[in-house]
């Protein structure tokens, strides 16, 4: 994912707007810059789909990491976004500083009245808002959302939660909820850096519950449990590595054993040639993972 | 709305076993249904029966709201959670936003709701102002009907008009007269809940005539077949208005099946059960047939996680014929 910058994004955005509406939108932006009336901000934000060229309505866009969109030193990852979402996030990045109280109130109001697509854009934009620490409760609220695309906008390919969710419990809820809702776990940004023993404990409990229900267990769970492996986790993993018919599941457990600090697991792995080859991570989702 | 007394079987007409094979391959659009009151089983069976899109008009919830926040949350759920819920079953969810006639009678609250409406009517997927109009035909109802007609005109949106149950014929005429008085193009106004008594005037005046197939209290679909035979398919559309009462979310495909059996042409059936509603509400700029032809982005590769409908992916199917739940 090559980094691109905000100026480049602005050029891209202009190309998706109906020819006769780009000037009007820029005018509104300067009006907002001069005097950011909440009503006008809401109106422009909501009306953005009406500015997009019909030919661009169905496009999906991936730029990778965008540096410098908004004031924070945190990149935004544009991955499989609609043009409307890109335009909306770019628009949000243009809202001037109004002082924390007014700025937060302005963005909060957009959240309060948002429709599904607007919510997705507002949450995808978490890394670009001013006063980044002020959005922690909003982020926690979004993680609770029942609307799949909204949750995904926060959990996957978004730098905000791992950088700014200070509370370990809130981070752990994000990861647990991602497992419950079968999100794209390997693409949760900061998954490795924010891993912790409490999370590993909760994931082990969850694995026992899934096992009792005879439901599949996402192999990434074992990768997270690995560094904090204990007797209880080991007992279940040993059972599953023998019973499992799913190669990726066996490989995840073998990898977790090999890289754990739990002697019994490392020895168990060393004694079995089969497990040594299974623990190879090439081509797995955790290939880039480093203990 | 429904009365809960036992129906005399004989009064319910001839029974024809449900056979949706008759309409297999046809696509349906239900332009009036209150999904907030329906279960996921309904969504599943609607998708199975060929319903690809629907419009959920804002209405009351069976008892009056007492505060503005519940209105806001309701409107938000129409453009948020319910839109997502429908998408999980491959159904496009649109809505109309408005202050319904019953709750227009709480004037203090109605004033606050009027201030709220502009926040929602410009949203994506909001295809009209509705359902608005008369219930008791009070002065307050008239006041807020008129104000919302002006709002629709300003926003360039179609209007979905609820006609009263009591004193229906006069209430319907009055609804149309007021719309014309405010300078609305009748082609932008959908008059709902028509009967044999109202249809002629509605069509003659150039409005769209919607019919609600709703057991016991509104239209039956045998009567609907007769109306299409008599008036033809132009500017006529069928809906279920299924809600929290005894109603039928499959009213549109069932009526289509009865029309097939009654010898009505496929072209006419497509108009009254699909196309006309799309043409009428497409005038909002928020809905077109191309959108309905696109497959909804449901990720079938993902698996369902047991405890609630939390997923981005298409929903797994319950085995309704088994006592085992797993």
TrEMBL record, chain A:
It comes from the Bacteria. This is Uncharacterized protein.
Automatic annotation (TrEMBL), chain B:
Residues 307-326 are annotated as: Disordered. Keywords: Hydrolase. One of its GO terms (molecular function) is hydrolase activity, acting on ester bonds. Pfam families: TatD_DNase. SUPFAM superfamilies: Metallo-dependent hydrolases. The keyword Glycoprotein does not apply. Gene3D superfamilies: Metal-dependent hydrolases (3.20.20.140). PANTHER family: HYDROLASE TATD (PTHR42658). This is Hydrolase TatD. It comes from Parapedobacter pyrenivorans. The lineage of its organism: Bacteria, Pseudomonadati, Bacteroidota, Sphingobacteriia, Sphingobacteriales.
